[in-house]
Amino acid sequence: MNVTRATFDEVMVPNYNPASMVPVRGVGSRVWDQDGAEYVDFAGGIAVNVLGHCHPALVEALQDQGNKLWHLSNVYTNEPALRLAKKMTEATFAERVYFANSGAEANEAALKLARRVALEKYGEEKSQIIAFNKGFHGRTFFTVTVGGQAAYSDGFGPKPGAIDHCDYNDLAAFEALISDKTCAVMMEPLQGEGGIISPDPAFVKGVRELCDKHNALLIFDEVQSGVGRTGHLYAYMGLDVTPDILTTAKALGGGFPIGAMLTTADIASHLKPGTHGSTYGGNPLACAVAERAFDVVNDAAVLRGVTDKEKLFRELLDEINSKYNVFTEVRGKGLLLGCALNEEYAGRSRDFLNAATNEKLMCLVAGVNVVRFAPSLIIPEQDIREGLARFERAVAAVVNAK
């Protein structure tokens, strides 16, 4: 069957507006479309393809497990899930793991767990959830309401209640909002969709202290910032603050759908049999691939390489900006970077994305004012240089089109 981009408009729900080209094959940090054109991938499937496309270790894990066992109901457990959970608890603060299929599902589980803990330990009055403006936590109705972007949550009728927001990095506003009625605080330790906003260290520590003071659980949404993305296995490790619950997905499966919620044994004990579940969550196929991805990423040399690659990105982006003067700063950490546009180009991040696509570079935006890069953690230096050469041509095209 011959399909093209036009087929999308014929058969798909119009909640997406994909690019005109259709990718068909990828190897490492290069992708080819239906016409055979080659692209450098700085998008990484939105921070998902942590080891690039078709990494040999992941292909091997997929083929090996694909010949053994794909799916079981959670009436049974399975070896890949147990091995992955064991490795995750050994590498983090956590003692217990719950597997799901996505970041939204992991966050849904975390929020339900936090409400359950508060109800059972303190009573019905302790139900408030605090999150931060411009945050993003998924597209289920619960998680999209907790996410602080009205554009994503408005227009679907009455929202879940007892959810409040304040500005990220505003400790005074947060302190005014939290109380003994707060059951949980959900935050990204590096805001992604909201514009690649790094946390002030004093803010993160202050949030942790106030959560302790008011017996509120601190949930870190590491769906985008986790699995090596910042140069630490998880971003909390570079902030000297430990959450009570952590969620992870995106890069966890290296491209295969999987999510997880991590927490302590004491907190986890409140999700007794039957209180929550997932048909596909923890299936052996996803866990086998994720286990291999986790093994590759959780390596000192790989994590050190992320920091080295960040330095190269920043150096080359500074060179581009010195010529064209379009960014105020390069935000973020590791290989989750955002080029914040200056006043002259405010609101035009998608123009830069489209120009990049025309130059055969795949990248992202984070709102209307930030161009975002989230490439493979093992992207070769030559691909970084080639990709940024293409990005420079894209920047020139936007500047010269004025």
TrEMBL record:
N6-(pyridoxal phosphate)lysine modified-residue sites: K250
Record-linked Pfam families: Aminotran_3
The keyword Lyase is annotated on this UniProt entry: no
PROSITE patterns, per database record: AA_TRANSFER_CLASS_3
EC assignment: 2.6.1.11
Cofactor binding annotation: Binds 1 pyridoxal phosphate per subunit.
Position of the signal peptide: none
Stretches that traverse the bilayer: none
Coiled-coil stretches noted in the UniProt entry, renumbered to this chain: none
Pathway info: Amino-acid biosynthesis; L-arginine biosynthesis; N(2)-acetyl-L-ornithine from L-glutamate: step 4/4
Domain of life: Bacteria
Compartment(s): Cytoplasm
Necessary cofactors: pyridoxal 5'-phosphate
Enzyme class: transferase
Keywords: Amino-acid biosynthesis, Aminotransferase, Arginine biosynthesis, Cytoplasm, Pyridoxal phosphate, Transferase
One annotated GO molecular function: N2-acetyl-L-ornithine:2-oxoglutarate 5-aminotransferase activity
GO biological process, one term: L-arginine biosynthetic process
GO CC field: cytoplasm
InterPro entries named in the record: Ac/SucOrn_transaminase_bac, AcOrn/SuccOrn_fam, Aminotrans_3, Aminotrans_3_PPA_site, Class-III_PLP-dep_AT, PyrdxlP-dep_Trfase, PyrdxlP-dep_Trfase_major, PyrdxlP-dep_Trfase_small
DNA-binding listed as a keyword: no
Annotated positions binding N(2)-acetyl-L-ornithine: R139, S278
Annotated positions binding pyridoxal 5'-phosphate: G103, A104, F136, D221, E222, V223, Q224, T279
Assembly information from the UniProt record: Homodimer.
Miscellaneous comment text of the record: May also have succinyldiaminopimelate aminotransferase activity, thus carrying out the corresponding step in lysine biosynthesis.
HAMAP family per record: ArgD_aminotrans_3 (MF_01107)
Name the record gives this protein: Acetylornithine aminotransferase
Top-level taxonomy: Bacteria, Pseudomonadati, Pseudomonadota, Gammaproteobacteria, Alteromonadales
